[in-house]
Amino acid sequence: MLTQTSPTIELKTVSIGYLAAEFIKSANTQSYPLQVHSRFQHAMNLKRSDGYLLTLLSANHYANLADAIRLNLPASWDWREKAIDTEKVGMKNEALHGAGWSISGNGALCWQPDRTTAHAHESLESGAQHYYAILLHALALFCAAHRIRSELSLFPNAHSGKKQPELSLSVNATMLNQQIAQLIGFGRGLTPDGDDYLLGYIAALWRWRQTPKVAEHFTLLCRGIADQLFRTNDISAHYLKRAVQGHFSEPICELNQALATKKNDVEVNSAALAVMQFGASSGADCLAGFLHGLRALKATQ
After folding, report:
1. Using CB atoms within 10 A of its CB, is residue 129 exposed (0-12), middle (13-18) or buried (19+)?
2. What is the reported pLDDT for 49?
3. CB 34, CB 88: distance < 8 Å
4. Per-position b or e across 61-99, b if 16+ CB within 10 A of its CB
5. Cβ contacts of 295 within 8 Å, gap of 6 or more
6. Which residues are registered as beta bridge partners of 17?
7. Which terminal Cβ of the chain has fewer Cβ within 10 Å, N or C?
8. How confident is the model at residue 269 (pLDDT cuts 50, 70, 90)?
9. pTM for this prediction
């Protein structure tokens, strides 16, 4: 008796992050076995043997990430039902092949952020500080409207009884490592509150990382985070690794670009809202960390 098999569904690619595109092209000449690492309704992470994560995202729910492929998924699609943990995923001719589905990136748009304003020695006297009040107000409104429940105190000098993040450009390596240890892996969520806060802080400092007043701190910060990634989970560690290399999500890149190019207040507010849309509290944690970074930069002037 013949066994009828279900047809393979070819999922349409909307866009590919620039690092994901490099990975897929390199797979033509090297063997990169992948397996399912984690599954969610609108996203799935595939893991390589060396720990690299390639993420598949629903384009209707997520913005671009450097290591992600955004897909136009069927309305009823749920990765928790379409795959199983540790399932092998093949790759051939720049296409992924799972059990009952395939993805081809041929001809898809490659997303890459505009880095033209990321000058290595840009002055700290920046329009970014002008927008601080706008960003702080946006964070306050968003937290109130969405009842954000972070384990961190997201506002400076707030007497909430929650952990108040302490990060400063003026502390030595030992103190900075202690400050990092208080944050990394701390809190709730797939990416813990403290990790998202650190990511936002890194993003705020990135454009000034080579200026004399920031360079040493930034080097120590990146080293301290790398040494303490064992405190958090694989997914969050992946995002932090990318952040210290200057790879951020599309909304964070757009916010940095808006500040660098001195967009109007409405556009900056819109960019801040886009950052905060991610996760239950992750986006708010990230913007709070970004604001902390701006405060740290202002303190050096």
Report:
1. middle
2. 86
3. yes
4. ebbbbbbbbbbebeeebebeebbeeebebebeebbbbbe
5. 132, 156
6. 111
7. N
8. very high
9. 0.93
